[in-house]
Amino acid sequence: MVGYPVDNEEYKKRAQEILDVLPSSPLNFICKSKEAELIKYASNCFLFLKVIYANIFYDLARKEGSDWQKIKTGLSADPRIGTSHLNPVHASGTDISTGRGAGGNCFIKDFAALRLYAEELGIDTLSLDFLKIAESKNIDLLKNSDKDLDLIQKIYGDI
């Protein structure tokens, strides 16, 4: 995917020239730069939310004495859900310790950026509240498991 900053034929032509020299990928197309940016944020933030979702169901399973591995196996058998991002306790790749929540540089940073962008655009209150609650839940998971505390500090400061 290659984004162009101005919607005119010259930029589209240049974007196509760049795309033509890149290796083939599952997604080969050109679009506006803002569309490419939203696609990137949507992809990362979808997976961020999937991690939060898995953590909530992990807690539900533990509360009622269910085996999370069996629930995870059942979920991942659904091709619409798949196997990725269903481990509530994992290392995010930024350090050797494991913990809960959507960690790592991209997830934390991109979700914070999405929330700020939504605020700037004046998205409806319920949608903004949803983003804020998901962000707060993730921070809580990360902090309570001592995961990526340095990244939380860099992005949010003292919280």
UniProtKB/TrEMBL annotation:
Limits of the UDP-glucose/GDP-mannose dehydrogenase dimerisation domain: 34-129
InterPro entries linked: 6-PGluconate_DH-like_C_sf (IPR008927), UDP-Glc/GDP-Man_DH_dimer (IPR014026)
Example of a GO MF term: oxidoreductase activity, acting on the CH-OH group of donors, NAD or NADP as acceptor
One Pfam match: UDPG_MGDP_dh
Name of this chain's protein: UDP-glucose/GDP-mannose dehydrogenase dimerisation domain-containing protein
